[in-house]
């Protein structure tokens, strides 16, 4: 087949193909087009995360210091449920817990009754009839209703403290309209720093928990720690490095130094905290984080309420 015949054959095949592919179009002209009825589609109701997954959180968030205070109260209430008798706390070994009990009494003076013994305190629960308590269950997620009610009451008081500061903050930045959203979804303004909420001054007990010497040592540790972080321009350091630096700057026994530093961490967790402290983890791997907004004056003023 020469080139002319080949081109002619390809041209004919192409024409036939086009005719076949478009043949159905001519048939549509004679066909009766029937209406296609589409079933009514109901609109999709877009549910919020709360409606789809339940309450994401039915409570406001709390500053770390208030979380720890609430957990201390829960532990005390659970211990009372277990022992069903007044609790005894040695002053020397439970100083931080006794300070926290003082904070709880500042929120509700009728929560506990305290009796001073020789070197300890006796803590008596008010308004809890022991004879009506159910059998103690160590792995129960919730305490009996009477304990949960007491904890909820303190929780509400802590929420009120944070909310008052939050409302003042919104007025200050001109975002009062956010308050409605805050109340509906139990959230705070994204830029709001909960550490702005002042700590609770403990109810003063008729004895001195920390001596004047201990107070001065803790103050010195606080000042040196802040300077150490500022000089290094960091927010995280290894625990051992911080202890080593403090021992070089302050003449103190290592054991006392560590106890004093842990006092700061436990009593002011919004200022200083260990980010990865676990029971099975060695201290050499602990990492200490500081709140870079903290100042010596602010933290010293905050500490004063614990020394009386």
Automatic annotation (TrEMBL):
This is CDT1 Geminin-binding domain-containing protein. InterPro entries: WH_DNA-bd_sf. The lineage of its organism: Eukaryota, Sar, Alveolata, Ciliophora, Intramacronucleata. It comes from the Eukaryota.
């Amino acid at each position: 087949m020469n080139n002319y015949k080949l081109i002619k054959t390809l041209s004919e095949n192409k024409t036939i193909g086009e005719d076949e592919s478009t043949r159905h179009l001519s048939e549509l002209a004679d066909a009766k087009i029937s209406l296609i009825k589409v079933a009514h589609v109901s609109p999709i109701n877009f549910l919020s995360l709360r409606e789809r997954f339940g309450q994401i959180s039915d409570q406001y968030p709390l500053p770390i210091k208030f979380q720890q205070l609430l957990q201390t109260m829960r532990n005390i209430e659970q211990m009372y449920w277990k022992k069903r008798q007044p609790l005894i706390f040695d002053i020397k070994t439970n100083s931080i817990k006794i300070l926290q009990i003082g904070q709880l009494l500042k929120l509700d003076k009728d929560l506990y009754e305290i009796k001073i013994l020789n070197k300890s305190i006796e803590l008596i629960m008010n308004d809890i009839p022991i004879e009506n308590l159910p059998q103690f269950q160590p792995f129960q997620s919730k305490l009996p209703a009477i304990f949960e009610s007491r904890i909820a009451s303190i929780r509400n008081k802590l929420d009120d403290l944070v909310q008052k500061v939050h409302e003042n903050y919104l007025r200050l930045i001109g975002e009062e309209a956010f308050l409605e959203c805050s109340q509906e979804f139990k959230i705070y303004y994204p830029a709001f720093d909960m550490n702005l909420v002042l700590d609770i001054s403990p109810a003063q007990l008729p004895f001195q928990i920390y001596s004047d010497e201990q107070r001065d040592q803790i103050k010195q540790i606080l000042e040196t720690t802040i300077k150490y972080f500022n000089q290094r321009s960091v927010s995280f350091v290894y625990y051992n490095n911080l202890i080593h630096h403090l021992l070089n700057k302050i003449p103190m026994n290592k054991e006392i130094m560590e106890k004093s530093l842990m006092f700061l961490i436990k009593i002011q967790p919004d200022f200083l905290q260990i980010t990865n402290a676990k029971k099975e983890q060695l201290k050499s791997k602990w990492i200490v984080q500081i709140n870079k907004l903290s100042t010596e004056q602010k933290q010293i003023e905050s500490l004063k309420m614990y020394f009386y």
